[in-house]
Amino acid sequence: MKKFTLIVMTLLFVLSCTNEDTNEIIDQSISNTDTKTQELLSVTEINAYIESELKQNGDVIWKNAPTNVLWSAVVHGEGILSIGYGDEGQSFSEPGKKSSNLITARENVLSLVQSGEGLLKSSDKILADETLNVIDAEISNFTTILALQNAEQIRYLDPSYGLYLEEKVSVSQQKSAGCVTSGENINSADYRVISPNAWLPWNFDIHNVTQAWDYSTGAGITVGLIDTGISASQNLLGNGFNDGVSSGRTVERYGTYIDSFWWWASGTDGPNDKCGHGTQMASALASPRNNDLMPVGVAYNCNLVAYRGTEDVVLNDYHERKGVSNALESLANRSDVKIISMSVGYPWSIGNVKDAVKYAYSKGKMIIAAGGTSTTFTNWYGVIFPASMSETVAVTGIKDNGYNTCDICHDGSKIDFTIVMQRAANTDRTSPVIGFNTGDKSYAGGSSIATATTAGIAALVWATNPSMSRDQVLNKLKQAGEFYPNPDSDFGYGNIDALKAVQ
């Protein structure tokens, strides 16, 4: 079965692998970690701790971990610790406007890190964000982490630790998650040709998107996309963005992902997609209503601001997390951006990304995030981060035979909406999108494509009255949901009727 464009892909299947031997490792690990003595744990022991936390609490709160677990995770990972300071709820502050309380908390963190690691204040191994109340530091000493755990006004201590997934899944599997750059043949039953000469994906009709276009095409609304970027080889997302009847709009590309060994590097790897996932999401959201026999996007007249914030869909290292965090900050600071689409994520929460989501939310942005996709055990593992946050709108994908999730899509109480995106009779047939290269087409599925599709519908709604608030737009989406006013425990408000939403 071919690859989907997915969130987390094969990664979460590891959570289903617990057997008697694994249980023994977890039990031994927990007994080993019930101490603050300096003992470097093995990767297997750290992973057993993570697995236990996920199964018991659904998240990993590293600040509360035994010191040797946290220290070992830092040492075995990239040696970087993200330190969120301030009181609970103080995720961010406007640049230059930090309260005296926050300044004191920040200086205390800097002092603890500098003294513990023997660093100067000007060290390039310490990076303080100007907006988010977080400091990233290169840490190697056990005593530094112990001091930070015992300090006041510490909201989180997050290691940049990706070895949990890397140990369970091969690197080639992990880093290919969601990445598709080759073209595919599209079944003729999965599209129909509309004027001027564009392909309409089969699932758009299910959500009454074509009827909604009589009222809105997304014109005047700017949507931010945080993903793997946009392919430089796809003309319809470049110079051809105003092809066909799409006109008068703009597409912008930026890069915040740092493809460098040095975590403090100031440069980025540029805005161009090398994975393919971001290109597919941009297609579903905003591909032009073209004259080239290529798939059209939901909001074919909206503006698009695409950020390459990550290498693939899994936020598994410092550069990806910082890249996504920086992209959120940048989009939050743009008054023209109304919606942010995020088809990326991770099994547990990430402090600096969480802070950035809250900052963007405070600026009135509607943040739409993928509920998660994995190969197995989706029946017990809930919505992934950041879709699990109350500040985001969580979306998942379902089949065309009722409320059955796509083969590997997650559902649960955190889901707000669903999008039909997979054929029940042939699960390889999902939503047609333009491909990585000009002239190519491919299929895209999972909660990823459901999220981008929902972002497009939200743009259609907002364009009917750009002065509406986020809450007003969200309420229209809810009212257009199949289960309104009584959301389902697993599927939220269900499928969105785009026509109803824009009327």
What fold name stands as the CATH topology of the largest domain? Rossmann fold
- CATH class value of the largest domain: Alpha Beta
How far apart the termini lie comes to: 40 Å
Category from helices, strands and their pairing: alpha/beta
Physical arrangement of strands within the biggest beta sheet: 8-9-7-10-11-12-13
Order of helices and strands: HHHEHEEHEHHEEHHEEHEHEHEEEEEHHH
Poorly predicted runs are 1-34, 170-176
- The DSSP helix count reads 15
Tell me the CATH superfamily of the largest domain.
Peptidase S8/S53 domain
Look at the structure and give the mean pLDDT: 90
Portion in helices: 25-40%
Q: Looking at the structure, what is the overall shape?
A: globular
Please give the largest β-sheet: 7 strands, parallel
What is this structure's SSE topology?
Layout: H1 20-32, H2 43-57, H3 67-76, E1 80-85, H4 100-117, E2 126-128, E3 134-138, H5 142-150, E4 154-159, H6 163-168, H7 171-175, E5 191-194, E6 198-201, H8 202-206, H9 209-212, E7 222-227, E8 251-255, H10 277-286, E9 303-308, H11 318-332, E10 337-342, H12 351-362, E11 366-370, E12 392-399, E13 417-422, E14 431-434, E15 441-444, H13 446-463, H14 470-479, H15 498-502
Parallel strand pairs: 7-9, 7-10, 8-9, 10-11, 11-12, 12-13
Antiparallel strand pairs: 1-3, 1-4, 2-3, 5-6, 14-15
Helix pairs in contact: 1-2, 3-5, 4-5, 10-13, 11-12, 13-14
